[in-house]
Structure of Class I SAM-dependent methyltransferase:
Amino acid sequence: MPPRDTTDAELAAQYEAFPYPARDPREEAKRLIIGSPSHLREIDHWVFGARRPAAQPLNALMAGGGSGDGTIMLAQQMTTLERPGRVTWLDRSSHARRVAQSRATARGLTNITFEEGSLLDLPGSGLGPFDYIDCCGVLHHLPDPAEGLAALASVLAPGGGIGIMVYAPHGRTGVYMLQEALRLLAPTDQAPAARVETGKRLWKQLPETAWLRRNPWIDDHIKGGDAGFYDLLLNPRDRAYTIPQLADLVAGAGLRIACLVEPLRYDPDTYLTDPKLRARTAGLDPIARAALAEAICGNMGIHIAYLTRDEPPRADWTDDAAIPVLRELDGPTLARSLRPDGLLPVTFDSLRVQIPLPRLAAALLSRIDARTPWGTICASIPAPPDQIARDRAALIAALEPLNRLLLAAP
């Protein structure tokens, strides 16, 4: 597809010059980059309600796959867990494709298909349908994000889901001010490398009153190399979405928000203890509650969400045959680290909250190994059954909204 407009052409040139994020395939031997959306455990839980059999092949699309973080993560997790299916990488940058392919080769991954092209061409492309689609950090750069999300929905299989990440305005305070300044000092008709050089000079000269200097939650221009600097401050087009704006975008594509990651972060009662304020929050619908949390915290720079067409099936936490999993946590290690006061400290971009855990939390956590079902775990704990049932429910209520305690695919 040819560029839609001059800005779209500039955006294509940017990602050809600076595939994002900057990655060295040689580092695949050292680590697997983990994140959201598209963690396989999250897909199983939030999209499919831990009801889609693990033996059923998963056909996934990475729309705007870039240098491959999400593609490599999901393909590696599927390989490690011996899950059948394929991951299709789709992007219009040939440079990004070379990086992503080199990373896959370094890991010996054979379950990835690479396709060059625009996600806007998906309708009628012959690709899909896909059980799961990732679109991380892409929609907010498109000429028409609504058209982009509709294109993704057009190749979504029945019962499937989409994982997205879009920018959020409050946590990006200072970014758009500096973008405006750099449009004056480093106009888009200059070569990308020259624009980066000018931008770095400006960053060194910024007064202390510049809002981005005071924003501790944005650091891609500091830690992300030239690709990170360009993507944050020289990107020719990006927009940020508040929760109500995101909800409108999603609804316009005939979709719904199944989960905001992490759910606890979007619950205003996480931060408000005043009973009169909580009485008011109780009357708000879920989107309004999330919008309130976003507005009072002020530090959300992105929103990550899982989307579905219909109300997704909910994980059945009462099923004793279900297998609990801790996302990127080791149960025994976490159990040993719990504080005597029963509070679990959690930090959301410098915002610290305390999550109360039940008395049997350590006993339960130490037995969660991604293999043992709830029934077996509970039967092995020497405590009254009614107390075990209460504490199991309390542990779920504390850790599922943190996106840490999930159910495995059956």
About this structure: The first strand starts at residue 58 and ends at 63. The two ends are 41 Å apart (CA to CA). The first helix runs from residue 6 to 17. DSSP finds 16 helices and eleven strands in the chain.
